[in-house]
Amino acid sequence: MTSKTRKVAIIGVGLVGASCAYSLVNQSICEEIVLIGRTPERAKAHALDLSHCMDFTHARTKVRAGDVDDCGDADVVVLCAGANPIPGGTRLDLLDSSHKIYQTLIPSIMKAGFNGIFVAAANPVDLVTYMVWKLSGLPRGRVIGTGTSIDSSRLKTLLSEYVPVDPRSVSGYVLGEHGESQFPAWSHVTIGGKPILDILAQHPQRFGHLKLDDIAEKTRNAGWEILQGKGSTHYGIANAIAAIVRSILNDDYKVMAVSAILDGEYEQSDVCLGVPAILTRQGVKELVELNLTSKERQLLAYSSSVIRTAAAPLGL
């Protein structure tokens, strides 16, 4: 009996890429990880360090350094190569540098014979995801960005501090750009299955201090708060990447808010936005089109316009 090794290649072994590999190893998500970076010695050192985890994990994951040719038979290629946002700027400021990296890198990966699924984590992630889709020629469902998965997690964590429940008992999504124009879809946020708007309306004395606009702002600024405190965000996004990869490899059909190419959903086409998607072995199996309020649809259309405007000078 033969079985195919589940292989993940990670391109970019800075803090995000290395943390992603660490999450994959600790959660025993795949059988093989190849680390690919512009400094081979750093990739080799990370691989060696990670290999020393194996005596303490549930299952063994083979970790090694490699190059772009190793992407040929990978199931998933995770794209982490890129710069961190600069305090005082936005993620969109990184578009030019990311464009330079990926307009060369993606054709090289495809030339190696890659026929799997891309998971983009580099910023600005919605535009990088769209760029990768265009450059790769793959079907839209096989190019996924981390999108607002991390923002949705931040939202749940913040809400759990006001309404004392486990963050995993909070359900809901941040939609749109992984950036300044993102917004929580409050009409679909529930706690223990109960809409948060009903909770606030029924318990004004208990939860009157909870201001949704403040929560939305704190969610949007959470990454910047971390960036200012320690120079980068990497643990949360690494686990978000791991969750996406796990759902792909395990054919989980998990619903997550990811960067996905829209083709008529939410009245948007030929643009990449953070929306709920069903993740399977095929990549994005289907987009979940929420019944948004009129205001929420306007916010999503605005976020789409922000992304389109940023992409225009590059001809994307």
Automatic annotation (TrEMBL):
Active-site residues, record numbering mapped to chain: H178 (proton acceptor)
Record keywords: Cytoplasm, NAD, Oxidoreductase
Occurrences of domain Lactate/malate dehydrogenase C-terminal (ranges): 148-306
SUPFAM superfamilies: LDH C-terminal domain-like, NAD(P)-binding Rossmann-fold domains
Locations listed in the record: Cytoplasm
Residue intervals of the Lactate/malate dehydrogenase N-terminal domain: 7-145
Principal location: cytoplasm
A Pfam family assignment: Ldh_1_N
CDD domains membership: HicDH_like (cd05291)
Catalytic activities: (S)-lactate + NAD(+) = pyruvate + NADH + H(+)
Gene3D superfamilies: Lactate dehydrogenase/glycoside hydrolase, family 4, C-terminal (3.90.110.10), NAD(P)-binding Rossmann-like Domain (3.40.50.720)
EC number: 1.1.1.27
Biological processes annotated in GO: glycolytic process; lactate metabolic process
Pathway: Fermentation; pyruvate fermentation to lactate; (S)-lactate from pyruvate: step 1/1
Keyword NAD among UniProt keywords: yes
Protein family per UniProt: Belongs to the LDH/MDH superfamily. LDH family.
HAMAP family: Lactate_dehydrog
Protein name: L-lactate dehydrogenase
